[in-house]
Specification:
Elements lengths: L2 H34 L1 E2 L7 E2 L3 H7 L2 H32 L6 H13 L2 H12 L4 H8 L13 H26 L3 H9 L4 H29 L3 H6 L11 H11 L4 H27 L1
Antiparallel strand pairs: 1-2
Length: about 280
């Protein structure tokens, strides 16, 4: 078989994948970029508007508010999930009776769909819900969980509860892959638990730690369901994140698809940055 024929066969093998990438990735992004430079009403003709949509967004406090909220929401949520997941993984990596049951129980929050978790917490956050009932039993004052001051922390708590098992599963798999010989050698050298954690566990888990955190960061930045079903981005934009802002511009307050398209282009570098480092980390 000639080199040309072999090359042709290779292209035939990857052609279905290339077609899928073009139709579900390249074409939508290209259309989104084109739309961001237009003015268009529903059912109307598109009219070229230049940089008008971008200038309007960059002059809007809503844009900076939503990006700031997203970064805060993501940083607190991912950091908390990482710490909880690591702590539980270290605990359930030890041998004791009932370990298998606790491992299965720990995965339960991750098994619930986002909308189920949102509804569950929405009822618990009610002023007469479970959380305030517990506070009253403890002699404490009820909390307005969805007030302007508390709404962001409330949706962060939802995300943490739902997402920490993902970290737990990744860390536990990484811990089980660490050779026991390393710990045995450390015991012979007289290393304590802290020294073994810093010099063996953390270096061995480094790739898993970074990969899981980067994946969770992308998913958390794109979280829509939990916020939409609990606060809707409010009150007074207290929980307005990037996905919620895009939705409101496109379908609620503005009903302006070109403006929403421009918004997604402006925040695209954040996601491309995370995708690049995730793929780079997974390829190492």
């Amino acid at each position: 078989m000639s080199r040309t024929t072999q090359s042709l066969y290779n292209w035939i093998y990857v052609l279905p994948t290339l077609v899928l990438i073009i139709f579900i990735f390249i074409i939508p992004i290209a259309y989104n970029i084109w739309l961001s430079f237009q003015e268009k009403t529903i059912g109307g003709e598109a009219v070229f508007a230049g940089l008008k949509n971008y200038q309007r967004l960059l002059a809007s406090s809503m844009f900076y508010k939503s990006v700031g909220n997203s970064l805060f929401y993501t940083f607190i949520s991912v950091t908390s999930k990482a710490l909880i997941g690591l702590g539980v993984a270290l605990l359930l990596n030890k041998k004791f009776w009932g370990r298998g049951f606790l491992r299965g129980l720990s995965i339960l929050p991750w098994a619930f769909p986002s909308f189920v978790v949102a509804v569950l917490f929405w009822f618990n956050y009610d002023y007469r819900g479970t959380f305030n009932t517990i506070l009253k039993m403890l002699g404490l004052q009820p909390v307005h969980w969805m007030s302007y001051e508390n709404a962001m922390w409330s949706v962060i708590l939802i995300n943490i509860w739902h997402g920490w098992p993902f970290f737990f599963m990744g860390y536990l798999a990484g811990l089980q892959a660490i050779p026991t010989d390393l710990y045995e050698a450390a015991d012979i050298d007289g290393a304590n638990a802290y020294q073994k954690f810093i010099h063996i566990t953390v270096p061995q888990l480094k790739q898993v730690l970074l990969t899981v955190m980067l994946l969770s960061t992308m998913w958390t930045l794109g979280e829509f369901t939990q916020i939409y079903m609990t606060t809707g981005g409010g009150p007074v934009d207290a929980t307005l994140t990037i996905p919620m802002a895009t939705y409101k511009i496109a379908f609620l307050t503005e009903i302006n698809f070109p403006l929403a398209a421009a918004y997604t282009i402006l925040v695209l570098p954040i996601y491309l940055f995370l995708i690049y480092f995730t793929l780079k980390q997974m390829g190492e």
